[in-house]
Write a structure and sequence with these properties.
The structure is a single chain. By secondary structure, this protein is mainly α. It has one domain (2-367). It is 74% helix and 0% strand. It has 13 helices and no strands. It has helices spanning 2-35, 41-55, 61-68, 78-97, 104-119, 127-159, 165-205, 219-235, 238-247, 253-273, 279-293, 301-331, 338-360. Helix 1 (2-35) packs parallel to helix 4 and helix 3 crosses helix 7.
């Protein structure tokens, strides 16, 4: 009976994490589209929410990696899984408050690792899986996305150099709608699966689900996770959207299109191979690369360094927070549901006060949209020299 109560708490907290993932990572898909005015802020997050939900149904490859490739499902307990989720949620809220586009994916993985180590020891961590599926892709993906986005942006601006800025940007705003939609779909495909994997891991640990070769994610888990991330996305994480859309570099529509296409391609490829990749890392790398590639653009490297610092801290910070959460729950007994209940109530109270503080100093959607700026006279609508 106690085990079932803890599983219910794990599922509930996992869906809360999925919700925070949605509003924390909305910027991945829509930051540049909102900044350039290609879509109005509320419309953009609405489109992203629908596509995040749809993306959750495309694949379960990443979910299988999280469920069986990060920590040992045979020794991890549901209480430890609960603590891992608490660590991920807390780090998501901290980085959201400061507007740092950190990785929700790495917060979740770091939380699971920290809780597993606190409860069982390092033997509970699948070292090869963490290295090959998490660490190596985390190092390669943002650099690859940045380099490819740089090249793509250079090519795009060479293709449109004969056109007036107004005409080129008007056309690429429409293209951005398509490219940002692909990023949103890719985000739903990759990120919603991570929460599916955690819930599946809890069900395996409690004996409700087989972890063998016939492993599959129950339909109710897929629907629940898709719904939670979509609802979170629709709330709009305006603080992080502002950072990624306006502070790293001034984004123009052709440049935004280039970065989004590159990011979507990398994320979808990683989902196909089962890598729980950080969509935040990929998009941030692509935006930075596009800023380097656009003629006359500049990148605020101090903001970029702050983002990278957030990346580096995410795994250990979420892991440490999860370990502390596990030790707190363990005070009430390893198999007791009282500890998780107490921690859940404490988190709910903290979220309430954070919500009140946010209302006093929140970022409005209209603060993010850039004023259109054309380098050529607006009345010249035909190609130069036509």
């Amino acid at each position: 009976m106690t085990g079932d109560i803890i599983v219910v708490l794990v599922v509930a907290v996992a869906l809360v994490f999925d919700f925070t993932n949605g509003f924390h990572d909305t910027a991945n898909a829509m930051a540049t589209t909102i900044a350039t005015g290609a879509l109005k802020p509320k419309v953009a997050v609405g489109v992203a929410a629908v596509l995040n939900f749809a993306g959750a149904f495309i694949s379960i490859t990443v979910a299988a990696t999280v469920a069986k490739g990060i920590v040992d499902a045979g020794v991890i307990t549901d209480t430890a899984i609960f603590a891992g989720l608490i660590g991920a949620i807390v780090w998501n809220l901290v980085t959201w408050w400061f507007g740092v586009p950190s990785s929700s994916s790495h917060a979740l993985i770091g939380g699971m690792i920290g809780a597993a180590v606190a409860s069982v020891g390092f033997s509970a961590v699948e070292g090869d899986g963490v290295l090959s599926k998490v660490i190596v892709p985390a190092l390669i993906a943002p650099v690859l996305a940045g380099v490819v986005a740089l090249g793509a942006t250079v090519i795009v601006y060479r293709m449109i150099k004969r056109y007036t800025a107004e005409r080129a940007e008007r056309g690429f705003r429409w293209a951005q709608v398509a490219s940002s939609s692909m990023v949103a779909l890719a985000h739903g495909t990759n990120d919603a699966q991570k929460t599916m994997g955690v819930i599946s891991l809890a069900l395996i640990a409690n004996g409700n689900l087989s972890g063998g070769d016939d492993f599959t994610v129950p339909t109710w888990v897929v629907v629940s996770c898709g719904t939670a991330i979509a609802l979170g996305t629709y709330t709009g994480g305006w603080r992080i959207i502002k950072t990624l859309g306006t502070k790293v570099t001034e984004v123009r529509p052709p440049q935004g299109f280039s970065s989004e296409e590159v990011a979507a391609t990398v994320i979808l490829a990683s989902s196909h191979f089962g890598y729980p990749l950080s969509t935040t890392h990929v998009v941030s790398g692509a935006v930075t690369g596009s800023g380097v590639g656009r003629p006359g653009a500049s990148v605020d490297w101090s903001v970029a360094r702050r983002i990278v610092t957030g990346w580096v801290l995410t795994l250990p910070a979420a892991g440490l927070t999860a370990a502390v959460a596990f030790w707190v729950t363990d005070i009430f007994g390893e198999d007791s549901a009282i500890g998780p209940i107490v921690v859940t109530i404490a988190l709910a109270i903290a979220c309430f006060y954070l919500w009140r503080a946010n209302n006093a100093s929140k970022v409005e959607p209209d603060d993010i949209v850039q004023t259109p700026r054309f380098e050529q006279p607006a009345h010249e609508l035909e190609p130069v020299g036509a």
